[in-house]
Design a protein that fits this description.
single chain, 17 strands, 14 helices, binds pyridoxal-5'-phosphate, Aspartate Aminotransferase, domain 1, 2 domains, Aspartate Aminotransferase, domain 2
């Protein structure tokens, strides 16, 4: 069956080269291919499937909505589906955290929401420049790509990617180095050649960038610098928001107060596309229709997304994410302790095993797949294996996946 893809689909396809199977069915943290082979999923749709594949309560809500001929597509007209999502997002997520944000639904990809955040910051400040960070990943459209670090993706732009000042992320220059020092000095010097930016856009944990976890004090210093120079402080929580770090927002326990939060991936709940900005009310400077998009009114995503928010109504859910994260920490720390060439970074249920070598990490990824584990690489040159199971993975499936992973890495390093 693979030849249908190889013959007709563009060469641009990527993940199917890492996992050359034809997938058919999926449930929670397992996928089955057309030959009936079962795989443990440590990828979770790049952070989309936080609640696993085909979660029953979400499926039921979707089927009910479809059976009742609920509106499926709505641009930005008012619908019962959107009202349900907004109401639950406000009461389950924002109010209990004392947060006050307006919701802007954008075209349903992360990159579109990032574009909207950039445009809003530029509109508010009247400035063009943006500060972003080494190894940051924000999407494939030109504005988001300009603030993304990855050289392969940038080279495909075909035009210059401008209006960005790139600053070393926390840890990039070695542990504890103040990577903001030069920027701070330049922004304070009217003759440095650098003018104040419209925004600082940061991930608290760079997921695609290699699972780089910023220190809270560094992130607070980024926010302080943004405030000092009248720039917006934007947190891109597309991959590590929505419960991944053991909190709903990755920045909740860090003492940060973003002007704009960018969300996508997991918020549609079922793998259905949805993306939005959370905007501080005083920063909601849009004029009606100024940033538009045909697929902003994804009612099916809103129905599934509203149902997914029930996970966060259960006080045991986020502690269970932290507990599973620790379970993975234990298995992976023991592995890393046995091999000096490996290092481990993690927060909640995202772990990165750094091989320091892309070819080796790719080999470990292939060894894992051959043993029935779906996992991908990230980071510079693909040198980091990223462990990102659904947050709902059962403990025994998690253990099974970890055992496969450890075995695959041991086999790779023994060669
Ligand atoms: C932090 C972050 N921002 C933005 C994006 C882009 O999202 P999308 O692929 O939905 O456009 C991603 C995708 O991996 C991401 O991880």
């Amino acid at each position: 069956m693979r030849e249908i893809f190889e013959r007709h689909e563009s060469e641009v396809r990527g993940y199917c080269r890492t996992w050359p199977a034809v997938f058919d069915k999926a449930k929670n943290a397992r996928q089955t291919d057309v030959d009936g082979r079962s795989y443990v999923d440590f990828f979770a749709g790049a952070g989309v499937l936080n609640f696993g594949h085909n979660p029953e309560p979400l499926k039921r809500a979707l089927v009910e909505y479809l059976e009742a001929d609920g509106v499926a597509h709505s641009l930005d007209t008012y619908t019962r589906a959107k009202a349900r999502f907004i109401e639950r997002f406000v009461t389950t997520i924002l109010e209990p955290r004392g947060l006050d944000y307006r919701l802007q639904f954008t075209g349903p990809t992360g990159t579109n929401a990032v574009e909207a955040a950039l445009k809003l910051a530029r509109k508010i400040t009247g400035r063009a420049g943006v500060v972003s960070f080494t190894n940051g990943f924000h999407g494939m459209t030109l504005g988001a790509l300009a603030i993304t670090g990855n050289g392969l993706h940038r080279a495909a732009a075909g035009v210059s990617l401008d209006h960005v000042t790139r600053v070393p992320f926390d840890g990039y220059l070695g542990p504890g180095v103040d990577t903001l020092a030069a920027l701070r000095r330049q922004l304070g010097d009217p003759s440095s050649g650098l003018t104040p930016p419209a925004a600082f856009v940061v991930e608290t944990v760079q997921a695609e960038g290699g699972v780089n976890v910023a220190r809270p004090e560094w992130l607070r210093a980024v926010e302080a610098l943004a405030r000092e120079h009248g720039a917006l402080f934007v947190v891109d929580d597309i991959q590590v928001g929505c419960g991944r770090t053991g909190r709903y927002f990755s920045f909740e326990d860090l003492g940060l107060d973003p002007d704009v939060v960018v969300l996508a991936k997991g918020i549609g709940g079922y793998g259905l596309p949805l993306a939005m900005l959370l905007i501080k009310p005083a920063r909601d400077a849009w004029r009606p229709g100024e940033h538009t998009g045909t697929f902003r009114g994804q009612c099916l995503s809103m129905i599934a997304g509203a149902e997914a928010l029930r996970y966060f109504e259960d006080p045991a859910f986020l502690p269970s994410v932290l507990a599973k994260g620790r379970r993975a920490d234990e298995a992976l720390s023991a592995l890393v302790d046995r091999h000096e060439s490996l290092s481990l970074r993690s927060k909640g249920m995202i772990h990165g095993i750094d091989f320091g070598d892309g070819a080796l990490a790719a080999r470990a990824c292939a060894e894992a797949f051959a043993r029935g584990l779906i996992i991908a690489t990230c980071g510079p040159g693909g040198r980091v294996l990223k462990v990102m199971a659904p947050l709902t993975i059962e403990d025994d499936t998690l253990d099974e996946g970890l055992a496969i992973l450890v075995d695959a890495i041991e086999a790779t390093l023994a060669r």
